[in-house]
Amino acid sequence: MSILITAEELKSLIDSGDTVRVLDVRWRLGGPAGYPLFLEGHIPTAVYVDLDTELARHGEPAEGRHPLPTVEDLQAAARSWGIDDGDTVVVYDDLKNLSSARAWWLLKYAGVADVRLLDGSLRAWTGAGFALETGEASIRPGSVNLAYGALEALSIDDAAAFSETGVLLDARAPERFRGDVEPIDPRAGHIPGARNAPATANVGADGRFLPAEQLRAQFEAVGVRADAPVGVYCGSGVTAAADAVALTIAGFEPALYPGSWSAWSNSPERPVATGA
Q1: What's the rounded Cα separation, in Å, for the pair 136 and 35?
Q2: What's phi and psi for 199, nearest 5 deg?
Q3: pLDDT tens by residue, 79-114
Q4: Model pTM score
Q5: What is the crossing angle of helices 239-249 and 212-221, to 10°?
Q6: Which residues are catalytic?
Q7: What's the CA gap between 168 and 6, in Å, rounded?
Q8: Which residue, 40, 1, 3, 8, is CA-closest to 24?
Q9: Domains in the chain, start-ordered, CATH in brackets?
Q10: What is the DSSP annotation of 35-87?
Q11: In this structure, are residues 51 and 238 in contact, taking their beta carbons and an 8 Å threshold?
Q12: 261, 249, 274: which is closest to 119 by C-alpha?
């Protein structure tokens, strides 16, 4: 089952009346807020999903900036989005899927079988000449049942030991990985043993994911291989999901550390590495 869907394929699903739930996951670190943009124009039938409050919860600093919501809270949110068991769910944003990948990973982790990303994001839809709707969507509540564990999630201890048996990837920008700068979290650098694989390198200028063969070659160039597990983290567990998407497209089965650098750097007992 493909995890990407084109704008034309999504338009056909919506027009046919097939059961498809479209989620608008526009979010950017530091803003602007996604909801006003959603009201100004969104894909028909889409419902807005708030990454900060529905795809994460408030936690202690040592849990990171975007700890996973409880499965009960996620289930309640997913039902409010109109999702039923067996539905096809399509997620999109306006940031080359760097934000909506969080919804893809979290729903897959919670057991939703068919979750897809709109390849090329919102720009692919408008670029195809398809219209947007304005205002709030009218959604019939769903009845989906969720349970965590369908994908592998890493604890902080798992992440600390991961490089001994596998390859741990850091999806942040190179300057943050090296520790040259750290604009958000309390310490600069990366988890010892990790390797840098920026999530922004997974997509082309048009916002579409690179071909599977090209993605596989990029990951293999930083040490990912078929005979060893691969894990991924980022600043707070959001763009790590975009690396997880790309790794999945490339044929790997990644584990994700949700706490990511924001949790690690808020744990003083954890060592920090710097440099390339």
Answers
A1: 10
A2: -65, -30
A3: 999 999 999 999 999 999 999 999 999 999 999 999
A4: 0.95
A5: 110
A6: 234
A7: 30
A8: 40
A9: 4-127 (3.40.250.10), 156-264 (3.40.250.10)
A10: HHHHHH-B-TT-EE--HHHHS-----GGG-SSPPPPHHHHHHHHHHTT--TT-
A11: yes
A12: 249
What digits encode the pLDDT tens for the residues 24-69? 999 988 778 999 999 999 999 999 999 999 999 988 999 999 999 9
Residue 222 to residue 9: CA distance in whole angstroms: 34
- The gap from C-alpha 22 to its chain's centroid, in whole angstroms, comes to 16
Q: Which residue has the tokens 């947007």?
A: 132
Interaxial angle between packed helices 100-109 and 239-249, expressed in degrees from 0 to 180 and rounded to the nearest 10: 70
Residue 122, amino acid: L
Integer Cα distance of 18 and 98 in angstroms: 27
How many of the other CB atoms lie within 10 Å of CB of 77?
17
C-alpha 116/C-alpha 237 separation (Å) is 19
The whole-number pLDDT of residue 138 equals 84
